[in-house]
Amino acid sequence: MASDKEPIRVALVQLQGHPALKIGGCDFLSQPFIPHDSAPPLTLLSRYGLASHIEDLQTLFREEYLKWSEQRLRGIFEWFRGNDRETKGANPSTRSESGDNVDSPPNTDALISHDKDSPAPADESDLRFPDVIVFPEGGVPRRLLKVIKDFYLTSIEP
Predict the structure, then answer these.
(1) What is the pLDDT of residues 17-45, one digit of tens each?
(2) Per-residue pLDDT reduced to its tens digit, 57-87
(3) What secondary structure does DSSP assign to 92-155, as a single string?
(4) Residue 94 DSSP class
(5) Which of 1-5, 18-22, 94-98 reaches the highest mean pLDDT?
(6) Which letter does DSSP use for residue 27 in this model?
(7) Could you give the CA distance from residue 53 to residue 37 in angstroms, rounded to a whole number?
(8) Boundaries of every domain in the chain
(9) Are 20 and 139 in contact, with CB atoms under 8 Å apart?
(10) Residues 58, 30 contacting (CB under 8 angstroms)
């Protein structure tokens, strides 16, 4: 954590995907895709009396989307840990939360992107572990909040 003399480091994480929301009887995580100009496809089918035929599909889509979301979230956290280990001069070879050997931080190109106008970090100390991580509204499914809690509990300094 930042001391009184250090700035507070805030990481803004942008996630693109289905919103982890239920609005007006529509569970966006249980849809194969979200069109911008109409109701999601499985929601439309259920409104036309086919609800009993699509429940299994909705469950399948929801579970697959939650697995994918968890993998992305864990990848982001491993990226933060990898940068933090590098800036502290620690050996980055360690075990991830899942128990897999991690020889180096994940490929940052897959996890973070910068446009040509984005400022580069001034030095390595700017890549230190953030004090606060902010996710977009509806960006993290409620079921994955435990992943965030576990990450926090294993990341705080004693």
Answers:
(1) 888 998 877 788 988 888 677 777 777 77
(2) 889 999 999 999 999 999 999 988 887 666 5
(3) --EE-TTS-EESS---HHHH----TTSPPPSSGGGGSPPSEEE--TT-S-GGGHHHHHHHHHHH
(4) E
(5) 18-22
(6) E
(7) 24
(8) 10-155
(9) yes
(10) yes
